[in-house]
Amino acid sequence: MNETISQHFTGTVWRPPYEAYSVLLQATVSCTHHACKFCSLYGSLRFRMATRAELESDLRLIARYQPRARRVFLVGANPFALSAGRLIRLADLIRDYLPRTATIGMFARIADVLRKSPEELRELRARGITGISIGTETGDGPTLAFMNKGCTPDGILQACRRLDEARIEYYFTYMTGLAGAGNGLRAARNTVRLFNRLHPYILSVVSLTLFEDAPLAADIAAGRFVPAPERERLEELRELVAGLDVPLTLLADTVSNPVPLCGRLPEDRARILAELDAALAAADEATLGEYRRRIVHL
Ligand code: SF4
Q1: Is residue 135 in contact with ligand 1, taking CB distance under 6 Å?
Q2: Residue 10 domain-assigned?
Q3: Pocket test for ligand 1, best of 12, 15, 30, 34 (most atoms within 8 A of CB)
Q4: What's the pTM?
Q5: Residue 6 lies in a domain
Q6: Is the minimum distance from the CB of 34 to ligand 1 under 6 angstroms?
Q7: 273 lies in which domain range?
């Protein structure tokens, strides 16, 4: 008898660090947008949904090894692109196999949220979709437009207001260096203005790390985009940390952060700013730049 011994995963699997203890289930492959200039996460992979057979096969396997799973994280660049009806049926299917599942998380784009009605969002919350990760990257309008993020600061505001009303938590990503050389402080200030009107529970900070296959490489070659120096990125992060006055957990400790930082705002603000000031005082552009050039994978 042939027995399935591995789950279906296509391409590289991405999940936020804070989902490390969640069960992973591939719900979609790649991204519906696939157009952000800095992104090379999914290469030539086209978006598709997991088939029912794939989902059931994976859930059978998970149920055998982790029958008491409490949180399931749906893998894919933006499974929240699925219609509310599909997500509800998927939540029901997950509970058929994993009846103890309390909550379900996934990545989402702002457009995925805006396509859902307030009633649908409330229904998704009731089915356990209580927290989603959104790669906002910045709240700076010109940067969102240049990078083809497919959303605007106003769209972020509208979408997150709807999530607040539905009591679905959202976790943001911010990317230092994304605005290009000379624009980091502007990006941080515009982001602070926007995020201070919202309620992100977690803010993951990464820093632009470009690989050759990202469309942005052509903009750099043509002189349309100049990467920010490492020192400017630290100053940008400092501006962000100093300005945010909504309570959140700050996680800036991925491989793309040469100076790893973590803490709660506002409680740990003074410590984090002191760590950033010390890093800025010691910052050596050549060493930090070499660190980034040596990153082979995010
Ligand atoms: S950054 Fe996210 S939304 Fe943009 S193309 Fe990459 S996976 Fe898709």
Answers
A1: yes
A2: no
A3: 34
A4: 0.95
A5: no
A6: yes
A7: 17-293
10 Å CB burial of residue 6 (0-12, 13-18, 19+) is exposed
| Non-local CB neighbours of 211 within 8 Å, separated by 6+ positions | 40, 217
CA distances from 36 to 63, 207, 265 (A): 36, 15, 29
**Ligand 1 centroid distance, CA of 25 (Å):** 19
Give the pLDDT band of residue 298 (cuts 50, 70, 90): confident
The DSSP H or E segment spanning 283 is none
Q: Give pLDDT, residue 2.
A: 52
- Spatial distance between the Cα atoms of 24 and 58, rounded to a whole number of angstroms: 9
Residues counted in the chain: 298
Give me the pLDDT at residue 1, please.
47
Phi, psi of 254 (to 5 degrees): -90, 180
Confidence of residue 4 (pLDDT cuts 50, 70, 90): low
CATH code for position 130 = 3.20.20.70
Q: Which atom number of ligand 1 is nearest to the Cα of residue 107? A: 2
Q: Is residue 190 part of a domain?
A: yes
CA pair distance 81, 88, nearest whole angstrom: 13
Query: What is Dmax (Cα atoms) for the chain?
Result: 64
Strand ranges (E), the chain: 23-26, 28-29, 48-49, 71-75, 103-108, 131-137, 169-176, 202-207, 248-252, 261-265
Mean pLDDT of the chain: 96
CA–centroid distance, 30 to ligand 1, in Å, is 9
How many domains, the chain? 1
Nearest atom in ligand 1 to the alpha carbon of residue 32 is: 8
**Interatomic CA distance for residues 231 and 276, integer angstroms:** 11
Which ligand 1 atom lies nearest to the CA of residue 77? 7
Cα dihedral 234, 141, 203, 256, rounded to 10, equals: -40
Is residue 41 within 6 Å of ligand 1 at its C-beta? yes
